[in-house]
Specification:
0% of the residues lie in helices and 53% in strands. By secondary structure, it is an all-beta fold. Strand 2 (21-29) and strand 3 form a beta hairpin.
Length: 72
Amino acid sequence: MRWMGRLERRTVVVHMASGASVRGVLVGVYRDSLVMRHSTYLGPQSTEIDGDVVIPRPNVAWVQTLPEGAEP
């Protein structure tokens, strides 16, 4: 997933194997995890998440990029 480093500082939605999804600004791409800021849990009731979100790579099903200027 080396290409994922090019998505840093972009707004993305990370869809996880559990079915949960998180939208935010991707600020870190590491071998074992992704780090996001200004994140929102997307579910029946969207919830803003304070601080950084660290998502272990094994939990990531797929990553969706959003258009430039999309609200984080």
